[in-house]
Design a protein that fits this description.
single chain; alpha/beta; Purple Acid Phosphatase, chain A, domain 2; five-stranded mixed beta sheet; 9 helices; 25% strand; globular
């Protein structure tokens, strides 16, 4: 079976359309979406309409949970914008998405960790950047998970990891947001290394697991213009340059 894995669209309609078009040219049996569908200053309504019209398995990300919640005053700018563009049907659909799912062939799909959609599974912040965590820490975060394959997103970084005597872990990277600056309790940046739209195709049968991590060119200039028009120059810079050091040196 071939399964396309997408995640972290963040309302980027042209990126999502380009990825879906590329998936359509491949021999893919199904699509699994790991969440964070709409948050951001781009096209949240249009992306939600597109996803709701499809029959893909979609997991609820932390931003989906926040965007669909009632407390508008506590939302960040990206969640507030998405919330303002969505109607009650959109928000109800996001709120009803599962936090994780166990599928056939031993696949566990989640957004961050199996038990926490707002924590990284295979990375940690070090000196202001995301780096891969050690084996013991990744195992501890998985807990008693018995899956053959764990699919995760949240970090917007691409990984294919085989744990010794444990599951394969796949993070396909972000469809629509190749970099971000998290100013939280442990400030850090995430950089995909290019402005492309990222996803993965998982090949799995009873004996073997492999995957292709794929980068797709799309009209990121349109996404940059949309972010600028909506008053979010930092988002525009993230979509355009990806590298935070390049932005700082050129500013």
């Amino acid at each position: 079976m071939r399964i396309a894995i997408i995640t972290d669209i963040h309302g980027n309609l042209p990126a999502l359309e380009a990825v879906l078009a590329d998936i359509g040219r491949r021999d893919v049996g199904r699509i699994i979406n790991l969440g964070d569908c709409v948050s951001g200053p781009l096209w949240p309504r249009e992306v939600c309409d597109l996803l709701m019209a499809r029959d893909d398995l979609t997991i609820r990300g932390n931003h989906d949970r926040w965007v669909s919640g009632p407390d508008h005053a506590r939302m960040g700018a990206s969640d507030r914008y998405a919330h303002s563009q969505l109607n009650q049907d959109h928000r109800a659909w996001l709120a009803a998405l599962p936090a994780f799912a166990n599928t056939d062939l031993g696949i566990l799909a989640c957004h961050g960790r199996p038990t926490d959609d707002n924590q990284y599974l295979i990375e940690e912040a070090l000196d202001g950047r995301l780096v891969r965590s050690g084996l013991a820490l990744i195992r501890a975060r998985l807990g008693d998970v018995q899956a053959r394959v764990v699919l995760c997103g949240h970090s917007h970084q691409q990984h294919f990891i085989q744990l010794p005597d444990g599951p394969t872990i796949v993070n396909p990277g972000s469809v629509g947001c190749p970099s971000y600056d998290d100013p939280g309790n442990d400030p850090h940046v995430s950089e995909a290394g290019s402005p492309h739209a990222w996803y993965a195709v998982l090949d799995i049968n009873e004996d073997q697991v492999s995957a292709d991590i794929i980068a797709i060119t799309y009209d990121w200039k349109a996404a940059v213009a949309r972010a600028e028009d909506n008053g979010r120059p930092e988002w525009a810079n993230g979509l355009r340059t990806v590298w935070f050091s390049a932005r700082k040196s050129s500013s």
